[in-house]
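To the wet lab folks,

You asked to see what we're planning to order before we commit. Fair enough. Below is the target structure as C-alpha cells, and below that is the sequence we designed to fit it. If anything looks off to you, flag it before the synthesis order goes out.
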C-alpha cells in the first residue's frame, strides 16, 4: 500500500547524497547491469544491503537521488519505509512504481530491505497502453504495471541473484515476443547512448530524426512513449548528470565546453536548475556541489 501524500517537517540525521557520497551507493547496494537484448530496456537490478549499517545508524538514514531518466520498480522485502518526492513524504508499505525525473529521498530504518529494477524504458508499453508522461510527481502502486503473482515470486526468491534471474527471464521472454516492435525503442536508446559517449547533448531533433529517416514528430512520439518526456529534455538530464559527476569526481579537469555549454555561467545556471528544484529547498543537498562549482569558477 502507498499512502496518500502528507507534508511533514522532518530531517534525517544522516543523508547520503548521490554524486557526493558515492561510496555509500557503491558499497551498500547490490547492483547488476543488464546485458544483451535486455539492456535495451533495463539499466540495472539493485537491492539494499543495509544490515551492517544499523549499528552505526540506529535511528536510520536517508538516501538522496537527483533527477534521472527512466523508471524504477521498487519491491518492498522488509518493513515500511518512507519516500519523499518534493515536499510530500509518503509512508510506503507495499511495492511502487517510481518515475525518476524527480528529486527523491528515501528514509530508511532498521528492518528495511528493498529490491528494484531501474528501467531505461519499460517493456510494459508492449502489453499495456501506458502514457508514461502521466506518471510523475509521486509513487504509484506497482500492481498497475506488474502482475501481483510475479511480485510475489520475486519476494519469495531467496537471494538477489535468484530475483535477477527470475525477472531477466520474464522480460527477455517479453522482448522476444514483441521483437518486431522494438525499432522505436532501439532508436531512442541509441540516441541516448551516443549522446553520453560523444557528449553530443545539443543535437537538434530534426538532425536526429533525419539520421533514422523519420520525421521529428515521429521521433518525439517515440521519446514520449518510452521516456515520458521529449528528446531535448531527456538529453539535458543526461548532460547535467554527466557534468555533475565529472565536477564532483575530478574538478581539476572539468571544463564546461566538454559538455557543449557556451560558458561557465551557462553551465552554472543549468546546475542550479538541476539541484535547486523548489521542492527540495529545505534539504539543501546541492550546497556541497555548488561549493565545488564555485571553487572551480574562481580558479
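Sequence we intend to order:
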Amino acid at each position: 500500500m502507498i499512502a496518500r501524500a502528507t507534508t511533514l517537517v522532518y530531517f534525517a540525521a544522516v543523508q547520503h547524497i548521490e554524486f557526493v557520497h558515492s561510496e555509500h551507493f557503491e558499497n551498500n547496494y547490490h547492483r547488476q547491469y543488464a546485458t544483451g537484448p535486455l539492456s535495451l530496456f533495463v539499466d540495472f537490478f539493485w537491492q539494499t544491503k543495509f544490515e551492517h549499517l544499523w549499528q552505526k545508524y540506529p535511528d536510520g538514514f536517508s538516501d538522496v537521488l537527483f533527477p534521472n531518466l527512466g523508471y524504477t520498480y521498487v519491491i518492498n522485502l522488509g518493513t515500511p519505509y518512507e519516500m519523499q518526492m518534493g515536499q510530500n513524504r509518503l509512508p510506503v508499505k507495499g511495492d511502487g512504481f517510481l518515475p525518476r525525473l524527480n528529486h527523491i529521498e528515501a528514509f530508511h530504518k532498521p528492518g528495511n530491505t528493498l529490491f528494484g529494477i531501474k528501467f531505461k524504458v519499460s517493456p510494459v508499453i508492449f502489453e499495456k497502453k501506458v502514457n508514461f508522461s502521466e506518471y510523475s510527481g509521486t509513487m504509484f502502486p506497482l500492481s498497475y504495471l506488474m502482475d501481483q503473482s510475479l511480485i510475489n515470486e520475486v519476494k519469495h526468491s531467496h537471494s538477489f541473484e535468484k530475483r535477477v534471474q527470475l525477472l531477466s527471464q520474464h522480460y527477455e521472454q517479453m522482448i522476444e515476443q514483441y521483437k518486431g516492435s522494438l525499432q522505436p525503442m532501439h532508436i531512442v536508446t541509441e540516441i541516448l547512448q551516443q549522446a553520453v559517449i560523444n557528449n553530443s547533448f545539443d543535437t537538434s531533433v530534426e538532425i536526429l530524426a533525419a539520421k533514422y529517416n523519420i520525421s521529428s514528430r515521429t521521433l518525439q512520439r517515440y521519446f514520449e512513449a518510452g521516456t515520458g518526456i521529449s528528446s531535448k529534455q531527456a538529453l539535458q538530464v543526461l548532460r547535467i548528470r554527466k557534468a555533475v559527476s565529472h565536477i564532483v569526481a575530478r574538478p581539476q579537469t572539468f571544463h564546461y565546453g566538454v559538455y557543449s555549454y557556451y560558458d561557465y555561467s551557462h553551465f552554472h545556471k543549468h546546475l542550479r536548475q538541476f539541484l535547486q528544484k523548489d521542492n527540495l529547498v529545505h534539504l539543501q543537498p546541492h550546497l556541497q556541489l555548488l561549493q565545488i562549482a564555485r571553487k572551480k569558477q574562481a580558479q
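Structural context that might help your review: The chain has two domains: 6-179, 182-299. The chain is about 35% helix and 20% strand.

Thanks,
Computational group
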